[in-house]
């Protein structure tokens, strides 16, 4: 009897979690909308895989100051659903909601001080079904924001992971899906995120306008599959977090952080 009750409890929790993910708002507009004066202002953008899973006890308060220092923030592995509106009540928020039959949504969130005019989440058709990524809705989150009198497309993505190799071949299949989407974009755009492939590997196959830091953003021990944000014996440094642009140029820098296994990458639009 006790096992039956426990099973029903976990089933209820699971169904409740799915319902929450499917009913959250995809775009949130702050109660007091901000229209930033951009004259002589340097616009900053941040990409950061915060490794904030549903079962994680760490809070967003620990990185709130770091995040709010920027005008546009791209977060990956942000599975914090309930508190993000409260923590960033003065920002526009877009997120990839759960549309399919996966257990977890994409974990993609974009925060912006500029008005969000349009939000669209596109799941990837390709993925490695033998990895944890099978249970998450991997894809890319595309928004349109207005900066002054110009509309700019911002895209946040998180590609297929690979714990024991430099990259999974599905990275290329997903990246091709992303590039096919950009062919129809009329505006200037910035793509950022956790690409799960070192910049030096992907540059060998593609000639996009990659903007990236010179230091590693993550360190991985491919024998154990463990990763962290600091250098350690047996861990290889890789640059997984960077940007791709059209019509815009960025100047990047790494911010050292122990909050996640990734170091965030900050950039100024120049």
Would you kindly provide a brief summary of this structure?
This protein is an alpha+beta fold and 270 residues long.
Textual characterization of the structure:
The strands form three sheets. Strands 1-4-5-3-2-16-15 form a seven-stranded mixed beta sheet, with no helix packed on it. Helix 4 links the parallel strand 8 and strand 9 (188-194). It has helices spanning 2-23, 64-68, 84-87, 170-182, 199-205, and strands at 27-28, 44-52, 72-78, 92-95, 109-112, 116-123, 139-147, 150-158, 188-194, 210-211, 218-221, 226-228, 236-238, 241-246, 250-254, 265-269. The protein is globular. The chain contains five helices and 16 strands. The chain has one domain (26-269): Endonuclease/exonuclease/phosphatase (Deoxyribonuclease I, Chain A), CATH 3.60.10.10. The mean pLDDT is 88. The chain has 270 residues and is of the alpha+beta class. The protein starts with a helix and ends with a strand.
């Amino acid at each position: 009897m006790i096992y039956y009750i426990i099973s029903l409890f976990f089933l209820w929790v699971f169904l409740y979690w799915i319902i929450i993910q499917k009913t959250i708002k995809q775009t949130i507009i702050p109660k007091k909308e901000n229209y930033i004066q951009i004259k002589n202002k340097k616009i900053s953008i941040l990409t950061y895989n915060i490794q904030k899973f549903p079962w994680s006890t760490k809070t967003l308060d620990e990185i709130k100051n770091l995040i709010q220092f920027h005008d546009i923030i791209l977060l990956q592995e942000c599975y914090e659903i309930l508190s993000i509106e409260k923590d960033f009540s003065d920002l526009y928020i877009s997120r990839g909601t759960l549309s399919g039959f996966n257990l977890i949504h994409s974990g993609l969130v974009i925060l912006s001080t500029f008005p969000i005019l349009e939000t669209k989440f596109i799941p990837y058709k390709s993925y490695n079904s033998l990895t944890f990524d099978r249970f998450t809705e991997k894809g890319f989150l595309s928004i349109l924001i207005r900066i002054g009198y110009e509309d700019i497309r911002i895209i946040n993505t998180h590609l297929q992971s690979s714990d024991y190799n430099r990259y999974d071949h599905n990275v290329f299949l997903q990246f091709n899906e992303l590039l096919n989407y950009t062919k129809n974009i009329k505006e200037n755009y910035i793509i950022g995120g956790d690409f799960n492939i070192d910049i030096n590997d992907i540059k060998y196959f593609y000639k996009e306008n990659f903007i990236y830091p010179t230091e590693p953003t993550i360190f991985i021990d491919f024998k154990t599959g463990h990763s962290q944000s600091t250098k350690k014996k047996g861990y290889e440094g890789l640059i997984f977090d960077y940007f791709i642009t059209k019509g815009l140029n960025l100047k990047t820098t790494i911010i050292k952080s122990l909050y996640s296994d990734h170091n965030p990458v900050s950039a100024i639009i120049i």
